[in-house]
Design goal:
With 286 residues, this protein is of the alpha/beta class. The chain has one domain: Homocysteine-binding-like domain (TIM Barrel). It is 43% helix and 14% strand. The chain has twelve helices and eight strands. An eight-stranded parallel β-sheet has the order 1-8-7-6-5-4-3-2. Strand 6, helix 9 and strand 7 form a beta-alpha-beta unit. Helix 3 packs across helix 5. It is globular, with a radius of gyration of 17 Å.
């Protein structure tokens, strides 16, 4: 059984004209453009995704100040309102600082990860997704605090857009430690789709579902960042290799969109031999 995740929120909001220039980035749209956030969630649901990530990548006290809790609660509500009731909502827990700057990871990130994990769990969400972590130590602390809430927890580590932040062995070692701490699925995200296979292979054999949601890579690869008729097909071509090594969780990240998610749905239909209705009912990985 293969589970289809959604695509990027920030990329799509930018395409729809939402201002992403504040420190809140995509999270600012929870207040300034809530209907657009709903629209993006609905689009991914129509494209075939059955796991939808909340727009809480930067709804932190350190980023949003006193508004952090209200923004977090509103982001979960927008996702719930937009997608079918049988789909799963994943509460996003991101690095406290820049997801491409592991050197900026705070010395003691535990209190802030605990604060967000507990609030998300109280909404409630169906699972907690600790995502786009380039710093394994901080990622494991986030996983521990998410698992402590009693909510199913997934971890996605990122090698970064240049693939130079974490090598496959580091991703494997970090994922193994996350599983030992209670993570029930491990992924790699926001690496170039054309290079993601090595990290996906590193995640196999850990005893839990694994997978990937990659970015579009460089503009010249023709996968995304701007409209291209062949981009979704190119992305799904790379995703096929992930499925062939056993991945059961797939989605897409920066520079992609609803067409890429739909291409993944068609790939899943072909790969599994299931009809669209059956794929739409998939709720949990096995």
């Amino acid at each position: 059984m293969i589970t289809l995740l959604d695509g990027p929120m920030g990329t799509r909001l930018g395409e729809l004209g939402v201002d992403l220039d504040s420190t809140l980035w995509s999270a600012g749209a929870v207040h300034s453009a809530p209907e657009t956030v709903r629209r993006v969630h609905r689009e991914y649901a129509r494209a075939g995704a059955t796991v939808h990530t909340t727009n809480t990548f930067r709804t932190r006290r350190r980023t949003a100040g006193d508004r952090w809790a209200a923004l977090t609660t509103a982001a979960v509500r927008l996702a719930r309102e937009a997608v079918p009731s049988h789909h799963r909502v994943a509460g996003c827990i991101a690095p406290l600082e820049d997801c491409y700057r592991p050197d900026l990871s705070p010395e003691d990130p535990r209190p802030e990860h605990r604060e967000l994990a507990r609030l998300l769990a109280d909404q409630p969400v169906d699972l907690l997704l600790c995502e786009t972590f380039p710093h394994v130590g901080e990622a494991l602390i986030a996983v521990e605090e998410a698992v402590a809430t009693g909510v199913e927890t997934w971890l996605a580590l990122t090698p970064g857009p240049q693939g130079d932040l974490l090598d496959p062995s580091q991703v494997r070692d970090g994922a193994r430690e996350a599983v030992a701490r209670g993570a029930s699925a491990v992924l790699v995200n926001c690496a170039p789709a054309s290079r993601t296979l090595a990290w996906v292979e590193a995640l196999s054999g850990l005893g839990v579902p694994f997978g990937a949601y990659a970015n579009a890579g460089a503009l010249g690869e023709g996968i995304g960042w701007e409209p291209t008729s062949d981009g979704p097909r190119r992305y799904s071509h790379h995703a096929r290799s992930w499925l062939e090594v056993g991945a059961t969780l797939v989605g897409s990240c920066c520079g992609t969109g609803t067409e890429h998610v739909h291409a993944l749905k068609l790939l899943i239909d072909e790969f599994t031999g299931t009809g669209p209705d059956e794929v739409d009912r998939i709720r949990r990985p096995v």
